[in-house]
Amino acid sequence: MASAADIQAKLNYYVGQVDKQLAAYPQLAKIESQLGVPKAYVVPGLALLLFLFVFFNIGASFISNLIGFAVPAYYAFLAIESPGHDDDIQWLTYFVVFSFFTFAESLVNIVTYFPFYYLFKIGFTAWLMLPQTKGAKTLYLNVLRPVLFSKNKTQPRGSFTADDLRQKANAATSD
């Protein structure tokens, strides 16, 4: 059986590890100095506060939409500015799937029938957006794409890469 001192030492070690990871975010250092509370306590505290708001349905719709839109929008902006195209495809796929999900959500009033719906929605959007799970790609390839192509019977024609669209826009607006 571990003593209280051993548990405290282990806890301090983990708090130190979390603090090292959070040192990469200068905004958290500002918050830490203003509040006088270590970063390693502020972040889990904010996460717990958001969880409680969603759990008790206080602004849950706003919070779940903020998580589902703002975080991916930031990473999509970074992807657009990066030289590669893999991350562009990931975020474009995410927004296609998230748009279908949001549209379907507005048609079906499931919120009133499903307890803790917004907790489920946050978990689902996290699964969609995380690069480790690639949920949006999975859902797109296995559900949306077959449904859309079964109705259309053809693959989309033309080239729709960002470079091609940029060239077409430049050609259309040139004198």
Automatic annotation (TrEMBL):
Belongs to the DP1 family. The lineage of its organism: Eukaryota, Fungi, Dikarya, Basidiomycota, Wallemiomycotina. It is a multi-pass membrane protein. GO terms for cellular component: membrane. The keyword Transmembrane helix applies. It is found in: Membrane. The chain crosses the membrane at residues 40-71, 91-120. Keywords: Membrane, Transmembrane, Transmembrane helix. InterPro entries: TB2_DP1_HVA22 (IPR004345). The keyword Cell cycle does not apply. Its main location: membrane. This is Protein YOP1.
